[in-house]
Amino acid sequence: MKNPTKKAVxxxxxxxxxxxxxxxxxxxxxxxxxxxxxISVSSGDIVFDVGAHIGVFSLWLHLQQNPQLTIYAxxxxxxxxxxxxQNVAAHAPGNIKVMPVGLGxxxxxxxxxxxxxxxxxxxxxxxxxxxxxxxxxxxxxxxLKQGPLAYRMIPTVVWETMIDVVLNNVFRRQxxxxxxxxxxxxxxxxxxxxxIDLLKIDAEYAEWDILQGIEERHWSKIKQVVMELHDxxxxxxxxxxxxxxxxxxxxxxxxxxxxxNTNIHQLYASxxxxxxx
Length: 277
Hints:
By secondary structure, the chain is α/β, with parallel strands linked by helices. The protein folds into two domains: 179 residues, Rossmann fold; 62 residues, no CATH class. Helix content is 36%, strand content 23%. It is built from eleven helices and twelve strands. The strands form three sheets. It has a seven-stranded mixed sheet with strand order 5-4-3-9-10-12-11, with helices on both faces. A three-stranded mixed sheet has the order 6-8-7. Helix 5 packs across helix 7. The longest helix is centred in the middle third of the chain and has 17 residues. The protein is globular, with a radius of gyration of 19 Å. The N and C termini lie far apart (50 Å). InterPro entries: FkbM_mtfrase (IPR006342), SAM-dependent_MTase (IPR052514), SAM-dependent_MTases_sf (IPR029063). This is Methyltransferase FkbM domain-containing protein.
């Protein structure tokens, strides 16, 4: 398929392909969030970038953190994966491996919903995404009410109406793409991987399923985990408990200020004890 791509500049000097320039800018500002609370990378590390989108995090690791990383970039939504492939070919063809599949709890086929007006929301769980729009609206209004005086003077009901128009436009203009789902354990077996030094997950409601796809024998081979998660059905506590059972010592969760009043959190976990150097 022919994907209409644009050009954007990220990290002040790196030209990349993108679908929406504003999203590329947002992603480039967000990526440093992942390397906090003891999470780090070193030469020779193997990184899984799950939910790689157009590759901003993978490129940031390669270009600005350490060029001696092997990165597996997973993106199952076809139009987004095309742009990811373009960016990898342009900047890191030997270090970033494009994986045009999704990860989950088992190998299967799944239909993904792609939102051209908000590609970062594209998901295999469209009903959940639609139902979660209330969180998006609440957080947006809360941030606007802390903005300039002119924004604070506008009645909440006006903001609600305007945001509903935008969200309706996003969800109405959707497309469907069939994709393959595999598991972390299957990838490790197929590629002969003995470890994952950093597992990063930002997969729009799929985070719990992805963790379920790790076989018991592989858990000890995963050194660090960082993820964005949606605290649906007590998911935050379930994931923290799972990681504790699997031997992670340093587990922290935070919430970006812009995500206050939503159920979206960042979680960091490593096997290094906080008291270790």
